[in-house]
């Protein structure tokens, strides 16, 4: 059991690479596992600086740098953000929560400062700033894990964007895309690197292919069922009778979460008004 928890994706999938290619970066990336339990131990200042500098070094579209990072270490603020993010205890436990934001406030400010009218009120600008924030988050995650820390992205920071904006004093044009909880992990919180969809499903040569999609989905379903991934985590469908004898794997779990957009957040009341909230907060989707 212990051996299974420390396997990287290379080992898990039996992928053989030349030894000179399996460097520290590849080892760190392929051993990623979300950690949701942290020790009450603060990060040294230079460690956090290394993580933030790595995040700031991420690619950015046209060098617009349309993102911002809010560093949250205050215990009470972390508790409040945990409450706004599905009451997830690990947010309070982590010594630091980084909140990665799509940020067009600064672009609007610079445009006006230079004497021009901001005309980039588009869906593209929203996507650009969101991708910038996501790239910075991924760099921070890789940096943290390369330093021996545990981390987990927090998408539920989007559950109540208005309340989060108020808590973090985000001006109009700044939206919290995701958080990243970082810290020294508690013993026993790892379950092992989670299996991913088979490569032929998500990686395509030259052009998209659906050949043997069903075969690979069935294979992945069996992997997740045998791993008991969804024990105690089944998504309930209101008014729908339970299917007796159903093998509850990735396909059933994913299908239930996608029965309507809101259930992606695990509750019909969460994130359903995200578009209108963002429009009120300075973003446009034209």
UniProtKB/TrEMBL annotation:
GO molecular function ontology, one term from the record: oxidoreductase activity
Domain Nitroreductase: 31-184
Record keyword Oxidoreductase present: yes
Entries under InterPro entries matching the protein: Flavin_OxRdtase_Frp (IPR016446), Nitroreductase (IPR029479), Nitroreductase-like (IPR000415)
One Pfam short name: Nitroreductase
Assigned keywords, A-Z: Flavoprotein, FMN, Oxidoreductase
Top-level lineage group: Bacteria
Family: Belongs to the flavin oxidoreductase frp family.
Protein name according to UniProt: Nitroreductase
Lineage: Bacteria, Bacillati, Bacillota, Bacilli, Bacillales
């Amino acid at each position: 059991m212990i051996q299974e928890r420390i396997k990287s994706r290379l080992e898990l999938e039996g992928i053989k690479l030349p030894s000179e290619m399996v460097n520290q970066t590849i080892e760190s990336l392929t051993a990623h596992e979300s950690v949701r339990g942290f020790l009450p131990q603060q990060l040294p200042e230079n460690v956090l600086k290394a993580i933030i500098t790595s995040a700031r070094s991420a690619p950015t579209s046209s060098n617009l740098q349309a993102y911002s990072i809010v560093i949250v270490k205050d215990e009470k603020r972390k508790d409040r953000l945990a409450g706004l993010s599905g009451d997830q205890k690990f947010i309070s436990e982590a010594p630091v929560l980084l909140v990665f934001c799509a940020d067009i406030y600064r672009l609007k400010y610079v445009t006006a400062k230079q004497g021009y009218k901001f005309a980039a009120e588009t869906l593209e600008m929203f996507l650009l700033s969101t991708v910038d924030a996501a790239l910075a988050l991924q760099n921070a995650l890789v940096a943290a894990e390369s330093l021996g820390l545990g981390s987990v992205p927090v998408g539920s920071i989007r559950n109540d964007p208005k309340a989060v904006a108020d808590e973090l004093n985000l001006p109009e044009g700044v939206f919290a895309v995701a958080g990243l909880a970082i810290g020294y992990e508690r013993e026993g919180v790892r379950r092992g690197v989670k299996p991913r969809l088979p490569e032929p499903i998500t990686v395509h040569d030259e052009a998209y292919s659906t050949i043997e999609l069903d075969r690979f989905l069935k294979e992945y379903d069996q992997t997740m069922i045998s791993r008991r991934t969804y024990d105690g985590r089944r998504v309930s469908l209101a008014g729908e009778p339970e299917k007796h004898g159903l093998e509850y794997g990735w396909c059933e779990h994913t299908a239930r979460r996608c029965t309507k957009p809101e259930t992606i957040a695990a509750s019909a009341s969460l994130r359903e008004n995200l578009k209108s909230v963002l429009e009120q907060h300075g973003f446009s989707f034209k």
